[in-house]
Each structure stands twice: as C-alpha cells, then as structure tokens.
Amino acid sequence: MSRARAVVDVGAIRHNVGVIDAHVRGLSSGARSAAVCAVVKADGYGHGAVASARAALDGGARWLAVAHAFEGAELRAAGIDAPVLLLTEPLAHELDAVVDGDLRVAVYSDEGLDRLATVAARSATPVRVHLKVNTGMNRAGARPEAVVDLAVRIARTEGCELEGLWTHFASGEVVGSSATASQLERFGEVRAALAAAGIEPPLVHAANSGATILRPDAHFDLVRPGLAVYGVAPAHELAGHLHLLPALRLESEITFVQRALAGEGVSYGWHHRLARDTHLATVPIGYADGIPRRSGMVGATVLVGGRAAPIVGAVTMDQLVVDVGPSGDVWPGDEVVLIGAQGGERITVDDWAGRLGLLTYELLTGIGGRVERVHRGAAR
C-alpha cells in the first residue's frame, strides 16, 4: 500500500558483517580476535533493526548495540538473545527495560550509576556495566581523571558488574588522524591507571566503522561497526577498502506526467524555471519521507527508464518533480529509483550526500516511517 519502498537486502548485511569479521580476524596478532558488535540503533540506520540484527548475527556478529532502551526491548521481543549493549546511560524511565531485557549498559557519571543502582539490587542477574571514557569526543563519557573512582563505585554497587571499558573516536574514519592517535593514547593511560588500581575490565572496545577498517591497534576485544554493516563506507576515502555491498535500495513510481513549457516555474517558490519545453513527472516521495527539500536545487537525480533524470524545483512534503525530457516517454506506474541501480546506471547514498553536503548517516536514518521497509534475502 506504500508509495515508496526501501528494499533492504539482508543478504548484503550478512555479507558485510562477514567481511568485517574476516578483516578483524586477519589483522589479529593473537589467538583471539575482536568480536563484532553490530550497531543497529536508529532502526538499523533506517534498514529495520530486527531484520538487520538477525542478518548481522548470521554473518558472524556476536554482539549488538543500540542507543535507546526501547530499541533493545524491540530486539528482545523479536526473540534475539545475543548480548545487546546500550550505548547511552539509561534514563529513569528506561531502567525497567534494561533489567527486563538483560541489556548491557553504558555508565559514565555518578548520577547514571545512582539511577542504575535503584534497579540493579533487585535484578535476578547482575547488570553488566560498560564504563565509557571521554578521551576527547566531549559528547559523553567520564573524564579520564574520574574513571578509577567511578570504576571502584561500579564494582561496589550491589547488583552491578563492571564488564567493559570503552571510548568513542571523533575522527576514526580519517586516514592518519592525529586525533585518533591522541585518543588512543589517553585511553591507554586510563587502562594503565585502572590496572594499577587492580581493575581490569574483561572487555575493552573503541573502534567504530572507520577505526575497524584503519586501526587494528584499536580493535581490542570488540569492534563496533555501524555504517559499514549496511554497506556504506564511513568516509569517501575508505570506499573500496573492504568489499561492502550497499544493502538499501530506495524506490518509488511515477504518479503523474505532464507537458510543461520553457520559462515556466516548478514547485513552491519557482526556484527552477524550465529552459526548454519538456515533460515533468511527479513522484510521491517528499521531505516528510527523508528527501531533502533542496535536492532539486543542487542537481540531485533519480533513475527513470534506466536513465538519470534531474529533480527540479523544491521537493515538497509528499512529492517531488522530475524533468523526464522532451520526448515524455514515461508513464504513471513506471519505477523511479532514488538509491540503487536501474538498467546500467546506479545512484548511491554517497552521490546524494555529495550533492547535498550531508552525511550518508543523515540520509539513511532520515528515511521516514511512511516509506515501507521490504526485506529480501532469507537468512541462511
């Protein structure tokens, strides 16, 4: 019944995780390599959390990560029993979901630990805590000088168990990043301070997609790839480093075709005027569905009949307009591909990001709820 579809190839997700896992294993210097923790927050980066999680686990991931407790609860409700890490401190209204779902939880403040302590004492099993260190991202995390005291508090809190120590990189996808090197150095100093205090968390992790690809010295016990799981390189410079397959195809169809004359304006504000007589096709997907309003003003294109056709004028809430050329050889019902291949042509999410000056993350997670998710490629 939908007017636009995000068709997700779960086989591509399974393949990508397998490639990531093999990459990490190949770079391991010891008998034990880091496990893959697939990040499936934000509805699996717009791909569907449950289907993505199952495909990732089938591909070799042993952990999953989410940002909100309800995301973890959704995985548990679907019967997924792999370890699930909540990457943010649980808020008061999320505590029951943490306990009920046996979620691993990030802690990085005394207040967060105090909240957790209110439910940890009545939990049938220990709540496993991953202490996050702020090594320079300055978004969330315990300051390095506060980590030892907080770790001691966690260990002494009834019902809590210190299972992990972790951090997050500000520039993990940048080749030769001095920021990543600096953060790793600070992280190493924190680990040394903990060891001196007799505290050695069983699991240490730091690497996002970029650092998973670039920094084997940051692999530790877990790697936490997100974007790479879905077949998109975390930076243009990293495209091709791993054989990743894009998992998402965004498609719609033409609903209306009309002839328009040179000089006429298109859409709100007439930001585009036609340079020639042509035909315009209306496509029922708009900015409420995640297509940025200015797409038609920066040269974004879609595929119609195996050819690239420009979006023209401002994208509206529910529709956009495409210049399909003077011949007008398209019809209502014809397929329109916004991300993916048609004929011999392909448009990638990187193409959209480059045109719009946005991150691929923004575009994928911005695909709205009216866009139907269709999952193809059965699990093995």
What does this structure look like?
This protein is of the alpha/beta class. The protein folds into 2 domains: 10-230, TIM Barrel; 248-347, Lyase, Ornithine Decarboxylase, Chain A, domain 1 (Beta Barrel), CATH 2.40.37. The protein is built from 11 helices and 20 strands. A hairpin with a 2-residue loop joins strand 15 (301-304) and strand 16. Helix 1 packs across helix 3. It is elongated and about 75 Å long.
Key features of this structure:
380 residues, alpha/beta, TIM Barrel, Lyase, Ornithine Decarboxylase, Chain A, domain 1, 2 domains, eight-stranded parallel barrel, seven-stranded mixed beta sheet, 29% helix
Mean pLDDT: 96
Apparent shape:
elongated
Unreliable segments of 5+ consecutive residues: none
- What gyration radius follows from the Cα positions, in whole Å? 24 Å
Q: The CATH topology of the largest domain is what? A: TIM Barrel
Beta strands, count = 20
What fraction, in percent, of the residue positions are helical? 25-40%
Computed structural class: alpha/beta
The CATH top-level class label of the largest domain: Alpha Beta
Domain module tally: 2
CATH level-two architecture of the largest domain:
Alpha-Beta Barrel
Total count of helical runs of at least 4 residues:
11
Strand order in space, largest sheet: 2-3-4-5-6-7-8-9
Strand content: 15-25%
Largest sheet, strands/sense/barrel:
8 strands, parallel, barrel
Distance between the termini: 29 Å
CATH superfamily of the largest domain: Alanine racemase
